[in-house]
Amino acid sequence: MKPQLRFALLLLVSLLSSSHVCSGQLFIQEIAKAYTVENGLPKGKITGIKLVNDVAVAWENTRSYQLSGATWQPRTSTEPVKSAPVLSLVEGAKVLSSVSWKNAQILGTEKGLYRRTGKKTERLFPSNNTYNWALRHVSVVLVDSRNRLWFAAEEGVGYLEGNDWHLFTGKEGLPYNQFTCGVAAPDGSVWFGTTRGAIKFENGVFKYRFSRRWLPGDYVNEIAVGKDGTAWFATDNGVGCITPTSLTLKQKADYFTQQVEQRHNRMGFITHSHLTKRFAIESSEHAISDNDGMYTAMYGAAQAFRYAATRDPEAKALADRCFKSCKWLVDITHESGFPARVIIPVDWPEPVNEQYGHAYNKRQQESDPMWKDIYPRFPLSKDGKYRWKCDTSSDELAGHFFFYGVYYDLVAETSEEKKAAQKVVAAITDHMIRHGYKLVDHDGKVTRWGNFSPEYFHSVYGYDQRGLNSMMMLSFLNVAKHVTGDGKYDLEADKLRKQHNYHIFSLHPKEYFPPENVVSWDHNLCLMSLYGLIKYETDPSLLLMYRQALENAWLHVSKQKNAFWDAIYQSSANGFTALADQKYFEGKNLFSENHLYAPSVVQDHYKASNNPAFIVENLQQIPLDLIGYAMDNTHRLDVVLDPMPRQDPTKGWRTDGYALPIDERGHVRQDRDGFALKMTEGDGQDEHEGTFFLLPYYMAVYHKLIQP
Record's InterPro entries (predicted)? Predict the structure, then answer.
């Protein structure tokens, strides 16, 4: 079997098995910890690491240190310090590594791989149906717990099992090839150290552990693995430790709910937190963002799905709190129905209005002529106790309407709760209708990203937004009709369709090209809005069109392995499948001018076309550590750069066509571009909220995409 095919089959088996994972089934969560000079180690390079009686011992040249609790102490043992092995020459080439295997000595040298048996030395040439290698610079040879012989060289890595070589390059998933060391773990996995991080080969799949997310330094000098699978790394900037920990998805959700409540709840609003000391969670302080409303809404929706699935009273309390916070954003502003971005106390320590003065706005307009010169950007509330941020965008609206529909259906139980939801939904929707489908700020002008009007869509400035914003406006009206029961919102939607073709524009709800029009958070707005648009639509002809729109939107992100987007897509597509099974689209003479359209849409889009296993895979891979780290994947061997014209040279995907695993990307938020190879989310100065696990997880549980 060809190595590429073997790799693909192993990966497929792994993914298919994960699709049956339930909330209570254990999986392995890797947790990283970094030890540096702050933990008692010397500054700079750690040359070696080993385990002595299960205790980690690190070397720095002639000195050794032993881990005691969370601190490294200088060793007083009389045991000699670790010294570099004395390596000989083979055929004039320096020996870089050696290991005993099957009554022979295996030698990795600068000029090849050799086997020495007694006085006989022979060169080995690994080959299979794909590769035939005369190796150079064989940095690592080792024998794993299954007695397979491994090597690591610049050509790639491979192992000999029986008489068969299994060889791996970037095409087979190997991420990097500048090797420094290697070690076999007790469980059959193998670790390799490189000049840019560590690589683990486990169950036929490579995992790349690099950057400060995983290691204190990327140059790995030595690796040691304990009986429990914990891997220790001597790096150029301290000691790293990666511990495999058994968790369930439910336990992970509980952890993230606690994380949000402890560090990301500011006056009921959910947002990232700022770290006053880099990488130090204990230095967390509350921050504000442009989109407190959206992120609070997403957390509220997560708790709403949680409550519907579990009836946990804590979930209802948290969803209620988020609803009141989102409603406060609407109630505080200058005009009924205009939602603020942010609310902060009047004594907030940052000079928020000074940051957005006229001079700043004018500078912004040099590169963005549509930027608003509005002042103050943080007006004072009527009671004088708070400031609220204006220039509200479509992001906020998508979050509000997504949450209000879910909250109304799944959480609001009393008449008072229902009426509160109806009031705020009507207020926002009426504001937009009153102003010609625009968000109008305290200056009487439309906000930068709040224009949903027909005039805007027919202008040179708004043509690229019309697909997304037309669909969003129809979604808002559908949510408003469902929540309030008021038929006037149906009439408004009908007018937008008949007079301005909003439903036609909605068939193309996301821009795919040119690159500057493909904005990752627009994927978020698009799919969140499609959820309400499809869920609350009753016209079968429109449902057929919106199902097409859903497929068009999802295909563009289908390779990103985003649990939230996949959960929205699959749950919405499953609803369409249920209607098709009920013959909902038959016998109604739909699209009589083209009698093939309706049956072809039903046939082509009858079932969701995603891989359900990717939802579980993404949820399992989201790190527990949500600090933002800078990660540059452009050097990897297992990625293909996007070949589209004018494309960003730092965009790409794995050789299998899918985005890199989320724990190997420079972001943890689920509203980012999974194809971005070079990215940072604060570079150690911010911690992000666990909503980006909680919302897709509880949504998937509620919609039975994950077994309870």
Answer: WD40/YVTN_repeat-like_dom_sf (IPR015943)
- In 255-369, where do the E strands start and end? 265-266, 269-270, 273-275, 284-286, 343-345
Among 380, 673, 391, 413, residue whose Cα is nearest residue 524: 673
Superfamily of domain 89-247: YVTN repeat-like/Quinoprotein amine dehydrogenase (2.130.10.10)
Task: List the end-to-end C-alpha distance of the chain, in Å, as a whole number.
Answer: 38
Output the pLDDT for position 21.
59
* Residue 114 to residues 98, 127, 134, Cα–Cα distance (Å): 9, 14, 11
pLDDT tens-digit readout, 301-328: 999 999 999 999 999 999 999 999 999 9
Sign (positive or negative) of CA dihedral 616, 621, 625, 628: negative
∠ at Cα 491 (297, 529), nearest 5°? 25
Q: How many residues does the chain have?
A: 708
Q: How far apart are CA 70 and CA 38, in angstroms?
A: 10
pLDDT of 223 higher than 90: yes
pLDDT digits (tens, 9 = 90+) for 643-687: 878 777 888 999 999 999 999 999 888 889 999 999 988 899 999
**Predicted local distance difference test score (pLDDT) of residue 3:** 39
- Token pair for residue 24? 């209570």
* pLDDT bucket at 266, cuts 50 / 70 / 90: very high
Cβ atoms 623, 33 nearer than 8 A? no
DSSP character for 132? B
Name, in order, each residue with C-beta under 8 angstroms of 318's C-beta and a sequence gap of 6 or more.
257, 261, 299, 300, 303
What's the Cα-to-Cα distance from 322 to each of 253, 404, 479, 679, 684, rounded to whole Å? 18, 10, 18, 30, 28
Q: In 3-state terms, what secondary structure has residue 447?
A: strand
